[in-house]
Design a protein that fits this description.
Strand content: 25-35%
CATH topology of the largest domain: Rossmann fold
CATH class of the largest domain: Alpha Beta
CATH architecture of the largest domain: 3-Layer(aba) Sandwich
Shape: globular
Number of domains: 2
Structural class: alpha+beta
Largest sheet: 5 strands, mixed
Helix content: 25-40%
Oligomer: single chain
Mean pLDDT: 81
Radius of gyration: 18 Å
Order of helices and strands: HEEEEHEHEHEHEEHHE
Length: about 210
């Protein structure tokens, strides 16, 4: 009964919706999950730290809302591409240092962004020493399958960590010869915390190799 109720409450909106409160303005597909968020009193600062990315977005209705979130115009350093990520990455080789996978619809992780073929394409698109980072839902029945597929695509070089408060698992697939030592990653994370105001070190503390 609980699962049925949760599924009922998570039915997606017919269209992407902008929700505003006193401090923030958020883009949502349902009542429970925030796709993007902006602080109204500081629109040029990040409310969600992970949003420093060039974006491939399949839904043109989402792209049409960019002005409401003060998303900068496309430039040499930033652009929003209207495309299916699976189709966009297919056949590309050595074009990216980092690929961040955070693609969800109103029902969760789409099928075409969780196949072995898709993860293989992501790996091929990475340059040497590149990293693919996948945001996965802990309550997704395909969670472990996705992690195995990413690991297989990356020749077994995979780390995982968790964001327990939001019930997410983060999988990191590496395109390099060796997995870095934990102490090295933690030291770098602390330096990034201090220089950029992020909180990477608390996630590095929970990183573990996936056997």
């Amino acid at each position: 009964m609980r699962n049925i109720l949760e599924r009922l409450l998570r039915e997606p909106f017919e269209e992407p919706r902008v929700q505003t409160d006193r401090q923030t303005q958020s883009l949502r597909f349902d009542n429970f999950h925030v796709q993007s968020s902006m602080r109204k009193n500081a629109p040029l600062e990040l409310d969600l730290a992970y949003t420093r990315i060039t974006t491939i977005e399949i839904d043109e209705r989402v792209i049409a809302l960019r002005d409401q979130f003060v998303i900068p115009q496309d430039s040499d350093r930033f652009r929003v591409i209207h495309a299916d990520a699976a189709e966009y990455l297919s056949g590309k080789n050595d074009v990216a240092d980092i690929i961040l996978l955070d693609g969800f619809d109103g029902y969760g992780l789409p099928f075409n962004l969780s196949t072995q073929c898709f993860y293989d394409d992501c790996y091929a698109a990475l340059r040497h020493e590149g990293v693919v980072v996948a945001n996965l839902l802990d309550n997704d029945a395909q969670l472990e399958n996705c992690i195995y597929r990413i690991r297989h695509a990356c020749d077994g070089k995979l780390l995982r960590t968790s964001v327990r408060r939001e019930r997410h698992t983060i999988a990191l697939g590496l395109k390099q010869q060796n997995i870095p030592e934990w102490q090295h990653m933690y030291r770098n994370a602390k330096e990034i915390d201090q220089s950029m105001g992020l909180e990477l070190s608390r996630y590095v503390k929970k990183i573990e190799p996936f056997e």
